[in-house]
Amino acid sequence: MSPEVVVRARNLSKVYEMGEVEVRALRDVDLDLYSGELAVLLGASGSGKSTLLNIVGGLDRPTSGTLHYHDRDLSEADDEELTMYRRRHVGFVFQLYNLIPSLTARENVSLVSEIASNPMTPEEALTLVGLGDRLDHFPAQLSGGEQQRVAIARAVTKQPDVLLCDEPTGALDAETGKLVLGVIDQVNRETGTTTAIITHNVAIGGLGDRVIRMSSGEIADITINEKRADLAGISW
Amino acid sequence: MIRLRALDRKMLRELWRLRGQLLSIGLVVATAVTTLVTMRGTYEALVRARGEYYRDYRLADVWSSLERAPNSLESRLENIAGVADVETRVTWYATLDLPWLEAPGQGLFVSVPESGRAEVDDIMVRIGRYVRPGRANEVMVSEAFFLANGLVLGDTIRAVLNGVRRDMEVVGAAISPTHSYSVPPGALYPDDERYGLFWMSEAVLGPNLDMEDGFNEVAVTLAPGANEVAVIRELDRILDPYGGLGAYGREDQLSYKILNDELESNRTMGTAFPMVFLGVAAFLLNLVLGRLISTQRTEIGSLKAIGYTNREVGLHFLSYSVAAVGLGTLLGALGGVWAGDAMVGQYEEYFKLPTLQYRLSWSLVLIGGGISLLAAVLGGSGAVRRATRLAPAEAMRPEPPARFAPGIVERAGVGEVVSTGTRLILRNLERRPVRAALSSLGVAFSVAILVIGMFMFDGIDLMMDLQFRVAQREDLTVAFNRELGIDVRHELARVPGVTSVEPFVMIPARLRSGHREREIPITGLEVDGRLRRIVSEDGRVHPLPMSGLVLSRMLADRLDVSRGDTVTVVALTGLRQTELYPVTDIVDDLLGVAAYLNVNELRRLTREGLRASGAFLLTDGVRDEDVNAELKRAPAVASVVSPATMLESFQDQLDDSLLIAVFFIVGFASVISVAVIYNGTRIALSERGRELASLRVLGFTRREVATLLFGEQAVITIFAIPIGWGIGYGLAYLVVQALASETYRIPLVVSMQTYTWTTAITLVAAAASAALVRRRLDRMDLIAVLKTRE
Ligand SMILES: Nc1ncnc2c1ncn2[C@@H]1O[C@H](COP(=O)(O)OP(=O)(O)OP(=O)(O)O)[C@@H](O)[C@H]1O
Ligand SMILES: [Mg+2]
Known about the structure:
The structure holds two protein chains of two kinds.
Chain A: E1 5-18, E2 21-34, E3 38-43, H1 49-56, E4 64-69, E5 72-73, H2 79-89, E6 90-93, H3 105-113, H4 122-128, H5 144-156, E7 162-166, H6 174-191, E8 194-198, E9 210-215, E10 218-224
Chain B: H1 6-17, H2 19-56, E1 62-70, H3 74-78, E2 83-89, E3 91-97, E4 105-112, E5 124-128, E6 138-142, H4 143-148, E7 156-161, E8 164-175, E9 195-201, H5 202-208, E10 214-222, H6 228-239, E11 248-249, H7 254-294, H8 297-305, H9 310-351, H10 362-389, H11 392-395, H12 408-411, H13 414-417, H14 420-431, H15 433-471, E12 476-485, H16 488-494, E13 498-513, E14 516-525, E15 534-535, E16 541-542, E17 549-552, H17 553-559, E18 566-571, E19 578-587, E20 595-598, H18 599-606, E21 611-619, H19 624-633, E22 637-641, H20 643-697, H21 702-739, H22 752-778, H23 782-787
Helix pairs in contact in B: 1-9, 2-7, 2-9, 2-10, 2-20, 7-9, 7-10, 7-15, 7-20, 9-10, 9-20, 14-21, 15-20, 15-21, 15-22, 20-21, 20-22, 21-22
The complex binds adenosine-5'-triphosphate and magnesium ion.
Residues 49-50, 95, 166 of chain A line the site of magnesium ion.
């Protein structure tokens, strides 16, 4: 019995029009995310990883193609429906963090936990990412990596059905990177959250159930790992 | 303890962070609300107080003067259909001997019932008491005269009543709605030192004037629903055999008309100014809040991305609008209480309405706050909608610059000669031309408001100059208390110090054209007269034609006649002849309304020989005191008015009320400039903070970075100034049109000085705004700005 498909994308294309120039960020991409899996997206800079994840997370709309969350067709969803989809089901770690500068770390996380149905407390979430002692710092008072970890705490706090992380370890040293990946791995294993991680780090690919390689807006190939590697064995 | 949601905390913190900007926007609202609440509120208070005054002191609805009628006629008047109450009385002009003044004074004596009060046209005793029955020498004087002459109760005033000198004891000072505006005959403005009202018991006054059992003035009130025109016609019919001079309603009664004109222009100002201010405030709220919220684009995107709905995001950001407008409305209401009291206090002195009191009108506060809130919410929600319409993925990224192509200025080759800094400034302006234009328009409005606040001084200066230096070139205007033979000109010319004499004739008349008519004195001037000339607002002297009427534009409009039309003139003296005259000329004059006729033609109309009602005199300027003394001794002289004195009293009157208005207007305009420029700069700082911080890190000095930031605002301000002049001129035109009344018309002129002042004030406001932001720029924490990703 094959595992249940949580997110099903078919023929996704995304074209950015900039005056006379057209950028084809995605070309006819098909992607399934399976329940409880951890998928790792690899690919060169500009290959369309963020664009794909943004569409899957309901942050953006494809130029063409369809998107289903379970049986729900999100291709034609209006703004209201997409908002509810993000609010109820998706946890997102943004590549640019997008923290609110006027709110502390704890408050940035509360912002999400307050509108979630079954959240962990902001303190729990921040402790998970190793920031239990930085609760009341404003983003400007945190290092780049710490800001990234607040962004991750904000994504996991609501215990989402789908967790999408755009380069969650980009700004982190190996040690902290492992801590953060451990948190994501733990959330994925313990709660069965369907998870997708974008990374440039090929080594991280071993952690996932599948590795999806993108190139020039297309999925180049998909590798299935027989066994997920242990975090301890990964180095970069 | 209340647990605040993170979103609410963000709101409070943001409101605090933006306090300077929100306060400056709030102040715009505050000034607009204050203006509305004060000006319109004052008007409402005046109307209320006038109504109470007229009701409590029973101002008549129709009056008529006549030569003499027996008291027995009163019952016939009471029986006229539509008449409620009738009061008959005796009025008489008398010369006053006021030893402390150089020139003789003049008094209008009015009889009052000996016991009880007048049923119509009552008076209000403000100092002292009412005259007592049987006391032949008691008199009550008008309060203005009492105060202007520093009288005390018990003082004696000597008057020449019907050729007999009488000493009278002042027992009270009073005001009356019938004479709320009292001017000496032949003068345009009150002269409270030399002219006053004297109320005496009818039992005393009548016999003194050979008016025992008779009257020469009647005042009636109308029953509800009565037809004024019919009553006037009936009064005229009954009084005609008794020398009736024509009954007239309130619209033609001087005091009523003046007060009504004042209230009309007060209403115009009290409506137009707040509307302009509210309109500008609404525009600014829309603009500034829109821009302010636009800078929050990435946050709006982030909030949406993590699952907040458009509604939640919208309400959150609308808190800016609500906070600014709420604060502004509150301040505006407080300001209104203070300014309203002050303004009404000013008017108290001037209008003398006993119950005049300012009351804060909550409905006006709500109107002002409501309009502002609407504008703020529209502006804010527009910006929120623009941001929420974007997919969060896009909104979360900083907005890309609009286009990358070099702009017009650079393509025109200017780029080669200007520095990189200037090029950056120009490029920023060119990339967002609409935004720059709207900001310029915002500043232009403040310039325009300054122009309409200040141009009035220019207009009044010109009006004074034309009236008192071009039109009225005489040193003294002498009015006789009856028509004198033309020989009087030689007598006057013989007075030592008098160098030139030009007699004039002035007779009461009714002008009619079709169904429109108007009672007004006709002034007869000599064709070759040099002292009193007819001058239009462009300064042109209109020569008096040999025949035909010259009318003020205001009067011509009221009669609906133009040059060449024919007007029926009924003389209201003597044999009451009727004659048709063509309208030969119409003048756009500035003060009062007048009808002029060649003096010889006027004499033909009255079938009288060569007579004079008064004369214009030129003196040698050396023996003026002697001239005054000499004229004062002449029993036939009713008044001596010097245009110079009139000029002074007129200016005093206007300056007081205008100064307050100008204070308001300059304050408001400054608030607008600061709001636009300060907010513009702050917003530019928050949009380009990273860029500027990077430049600092790259080695640019604070000064260079500041130049980049402020250069854009400087260009916006400089463009705004001429635009503001243009808008201001247009608004000034509207103000002039709206303020035009029979009393005066302010000409539309804007002096160089006004343009200079408006520019100076705007530049100071811009510099002050820049200084405020400069501090922030200097203290900018470079690391913090560069570290946080938006
Ligand atoms: N808003 C946009 N307008 C125009 N082009 C865009 C926009 N966003 C992305 N692109 C282009 O689409 C392509 C894919 O972008 P995307 O952000 O998905 O790349 P990525 O694989 O996430 O790269 P990276 O690893 O550098 O984050 C790129 O060529 C990018 O330049
Ligand atoms: Mg990316």
